[in-house]
Design brief:
Helix content is 33%, strand content 15%. The chain has helices at residues 36-45, 76-92, 151-171, 185-190, 205-222, 245-257, 284-294, 307-315, 326-330, 334-342, 363-366, and strands at 8-10, 13-15, 19-21, 52-59, 98-104, 132-133, 147-148, 175-179, 228-234, 262-266, 297-301, 321-324. The structure holds flavin mononucleotide. The site of flavin mononucleotide (FMN) has 20 residues, from strand 4 and helix 9.
Length: 369
């Protein structure tokens, strides 16, 4: 019996299997509002066979977007546009598919170009905006100088997280994921690489974690307890002076104590000069440490490509769920193919049933890999 296709509860929400579509920025929104691109993207992924689809990093305030094309949930127009896309995706999703939204703030990595425009800081003629960070240290040479977060910034951004979470709840999302990784604002505040403050929000781990944890608590309290709340955290910063896996374990425990239901353990992104050598499953050991050390439901992510690899991660107990990003873009029917390979049943759409291997021997020809 496949463990990958066994059900799993993240707090109040039961997933039909352990497969999750990882959040993926599309850099294609109009002032934070989704459009037809997101419609096709999420409708397609809603049929992937994953138990849960996580909507891309969604900015809680306009200045919290990474690029001009990033999705937001800071206005009524954003909410309306997202509602249209979510309803359409739900309309075609395999029965039982859950939807989660990742909410975040880009901090000092905001005001940048879309990856295909270069990915650098927005130039003066491209409508850049002021950025904020734990300390006034740019992401890299030539990047915008962020303003050090003031008490007022913290209050405003904290409220923006709560407002965005309330909008997500109103739209009917099953789960909300706080973005606490990849060098964006909450990670920037938690990491000693970027937080050099000497006040009550810098120095010790307790001080650095305090504000992000207060946001997690506030979001948890702001939405009904039928909604699962979790976070994407960093397994480590890949540098001796950065966050280590012990910090991730401590964060997992703190988030659990704050009432959160799950974490996804990623890594990297705090500074562009820190290079990581990646290989299949390279972040799984971080997820395993967090799961074992904190007891919170844990998702592994990062170069998980094959059904066999995903099955092993779950069957070995290293993580409770796996998330796939590029694998799902490459093959938006990844879950169907994994089910076929592992001998599991999923609620295949009857309209497409004729592509199943048992019905159509040509499947082997169409998918030789
Ligand atoms: C196109 C693309 C967009 C991404 N956008 C996000 C995002 O919005 N939020 C996030 O936390 N990670 C984002 N990521 C990272 C993925 O969620 C994932 O952690 C990473 O790609 C590793 O998983 P993979 O090897 O399965 O692709 C993105 C990755 C890709 C490829």
């Amino acid at each position: 019996m496949s463990q990958l296709f066994s059900p799993f509860a993240i707090g109040p929400v039961t997933l039909a299997n352990r497969i999750v579509v990882a959040p993926m920025c599309q850099y294609s929104a109009d002032d934070g509002s989704m459009n037809d691109w997101h419609l096709q993207h999420l409708m397609s992924l809603a049929m992937s066979g994953a138990a849960m689809v996580v909507v891309e990093a969604t900015a809680v305030e306009r200045h919290g977007r990474i690029t001009h094309g990033c999705v937001g949930l800071y206005s009524d127009s954003n909410e309306l546009a997202l509602g249209r896309v979510l309803a359409a995706a739900r309309g075609v999703a395999l029965p039982g598919t859950k939807f989660c939204i990742q909410i975040g703030h880009a901090g000092r990595k905001a005001s940048s170009e879309r990856p295909w425009e270069g990915g650098g800081p927005l130039k003066d003629n491209a409508d850049p905006w002021p950025t904020v960070a734990a300390s006034a240290i740019p992401f890299d040479e030539g990047w915008h100088m962020p303003r050090e977060l003031t008490g007022q910034d913290k209050m405003r951004i904290g409220c923006a997280f709560v407002d965005a979470a309330r909008r997500a709840a109103r739209l009917g999302f099953d789960a909300i994921e706080l973005h606490m990784a990849h060098g964006y604002l909450l990670h920037n505040v938690m990491s000693p690489v970027s937080n050099k403050r000497t006040d009550a929000f810098g120095g010790s781990r307790e001080n650095r974690f305090a504000w992000p944890l207060s946001i997690a608590e506030a979001v948890r309290k702001a939405v009904p307890d039928t909604i699962a709340v979790g976070a994407r955290i960093t397994g480590q910063d890949w540098t001796d002076d950065g966050l280590q896996v012990e910090d991730a374990v401590a964060l997992g425990a703190e988030l659990k104590a704050a009432g959160l239901d799950f974490v996804c353990v990623s890594s990297g992104g705090i500074h562009p000069k820190i290079r990581i050598s990646v290989k299949p499953g390279y972040q799984v050991p971080f997820a395993e440490a967090v799961k074992q050390g904190s007891g919170i439901a844990t998702r592994a992510v990062g170069m998980i490509g094959t059904a066999k690899q995903a099955e092993e991660i779950i069957a070995s107990g290293a993580a409770d769920m796996v998330a796939l990003a590029r694998g799902m873009l490459d093959d938006p029917r990844w879950g169907w193919h994994a089910a076929e390979e592992l001998g599991a049943d999923i609620p295949f759409p009857p309209q497409y049933a004729r592509v199943a291997k048992k019905v159509w021997p040509g499947a082997a020809l169409a998918r030789p890999r």
